[in-house]
Amino acid sequence: MEKALLWDRLRNGSVKCLLCPHRCSIPIGQVGICGVRKNVDGVLMSMNDSLTIAQAIDPIEKKPLAEFLPGTRTYSFAAVGCNLHCPWCQNHDISQAKERTHFGRKILPLEHVQEAIQQHTPSISYTYSEPTVYFEYAISTMRLAKQKGLKNIWVTNGFMSQEALHLILPYLDAANVDVKG
């Protein structure tokens, strides 16, 4: 677990997550709606930091981004979690964290960047689940990727706070916002 970004302390040890519009108020020992942000003794912790549940090399058009780096491949990865619970989700087995005991295998941000470079992909895609809820992991990877000249792509539901958006924008090169409804 890693200390989360974007949260405030409340009374009685509760915390308020500021990552998405849910603005979850989380009592000690509990998790937010996403299932991966937990109040540990009055500190909001990210339970999925540096834990990869899925990774692959995909055609960029799968994101789908036909006009961004067309014809290239992208290094894609995900961590467990989502701040929505759509019953039709095609990736519910990795996006939903409830009652999950395994959050993936440890892969550090630098390892993702090195693998993208080794696979000759010009970009990294934060996809398959919701990158907003693996925010700390994603932004750490994004910073390193940008330093190495890689492009950063989010495939997202777009349900994030202005504070979160403000932090990722300097590192974000493209996004596909999947409309839920």
Word description of this protein:
The termini are far apart. The chain has helices spanning 92-95, 109-118, 135-147, 162-168; strands spanning 2-3, 7-9, 15-17, 25-26, 37-40, 43-46, 51-52, 54-59, 73-78, 105-106, 123-126, 151-156, 174-177. It is built from four helices and 13 strands. The mean pLDDT is 94. Helices cover 19% and strands 27% of the residues. The chain is globular and about 55 Å long. It is α/β, with parallel strands linked by helices and 181 residues long.
Q: What can be said about this structure in brief?
A:
With 181 residues, the protein is of the alpha/beta class.
Feature tags:
alpha/beta; 181 residues; single chain
Mean pLDDT: 94
**Poorly predicted sequence stretches spanning 5 or more consecutive residues:** none
The first-to-last residue Cα distance is 32 Å
Task: Summarize the biggest pleated sheet.
Answer: 5 strands, mixed
* Helix-strand category: alpha/beta
SSE blueprint and pairings:
Elements (H helix, E strand, L loop, with lengths): L1 E2 L3 E3 L5 E3 L7 E2 L10 E4 L2 E4 L4 E2 L1 E6 L13 E6 L13 H4 L9 E2 L2 H10 L4 E4 L8 H13 L3 E6 L5 H7 L5 E4 L4
Parallel strand pairs: 9-11, 11-12, 12-13
Antiparallel strand pairs: 1-6, 2-3, 3-4, 5-6, 7-10, 8-9
Helix pairs in contact: 2-3
